[in-house]
From TrEMBL:
Job description of the protein: Catalyzes the phosphorylation of the 3'-hydroxyl group of dephosphocoenzyme A to form coenzyme A.
Reactions this protein catalyses: 3'-dephospho-CoA + ATP = ADP + CoA + H(+)
Principal localisation: cytoplasm
Organism lineage string: Bacteria, Bacillati, Bacillota, Bacilli, Lactobacillales
Organism field: Enterococcus ureilyticus
Pathway: Cofactor biosynthesis; coenzyme A biosynthesis; CoA from (R)-pantothenate: step 5/5
Pfam annotation, one family: CoaE
UniProt-recorded name of the protein: Dephospho-CoA kinase
InterPro entries per UniProt: Depp_CoAkinase, P-loop_NTPase
Stated family: Belongs to the CoaE family.
Molecular function terms from GO: ATP binding; dephospho-CoA kinase activity
Encoding gene, per UniProt annotation: coaE
GO cellular component: cytoplasm
Source organism, top-level taxon: Bacteria
Annotated signal sequence range: none
């Protein structure tokens, strides 16, 4: 049975970059973001439940979820964010745990990519937690640049998650991503080889 490594970070800390390094090394990935999108596809129970709470104005003309409209609603209102999480969490958790189960005997290392790993209590379903880390100031700058957000909008998104410093404190492994992609890649490759996966 392989080691189940929960991988998390903060918004714009470079978690996707790190996941791609593991993917290119051939390790299976359980991707919570993909699962979260699948549970709200047109015709899904997840989407129907969101609509029953937030209304049809968050639906595109093709019946799909308008993420941008929903994002505006939930990032500016902690209560609405809690409601959305409460609706979707059971669907997402069930799928994540099923995917872990189906992959755990197929490789020496399984990466479980969950942005809200600590917030969702997933740390108890993995063997170890790795955090992709950059300091908050750099996180803010990268997020503003990446998503063309004002400082206030970027801060709202960052503050909707557990702070990166808090995540770093709780982590078993910290992958520092302050430098360039090449350096981060070498860091992960060295870790994989040292652990003999």
């Amino acid at each position: 049975m392989g080691l189940i490594l929960g991988l998390t970070g903060g918004i714009a800390t470079g978690k996707s970059t790190v996941v791609n390094v593991f993917k290119n090394l051939g390790f299976p990935i359980v991707d919570a973001d993909i699962i979260a999108r699948e549970v709200v596809e047109p015709g899904s129970i997840g989407l129907a439940e969101i609509v029953s709470v937030f209304g049809t104005n968050i639906i595109n003309s093709d019946g799909s979820l308008n993420r941008k409209k929903l994002g505006v609603l939930i990032f500016s209102d902690a209560q609405k964010r809690k409601i959305l999480n409460k609706i979707l969490s059971p669907f997402i958790k069930e799928r994540i745990l099923a995917e872990i189960e189906s992959k755990k005997d197929k490789a020496s290392l399984i990466i479980v990519d969950i942005p809200l790993l600590y917030e969702g209590g997933y740390d108890k379903f993995v063997d170890q937690v790795a955090v992709v880390y950059i300091p908050e100031k750099l996180q803010l700058l990268r997020l503003m640049k990446r998503d063309h957000l004002s400082e206030n909008e970027a801060l709202q998104r960052i503050q909707s998650q557990l702070s990166i410093e808090e995540k770093k404190k709780n982590a078993d492994i910290v992958f520092d991503n302050q430098e360039n992609i090449e350096k981060t890649k070498k860091l992960i490759e060295a870790w994989v080889s040292e652990k003999n996966f």
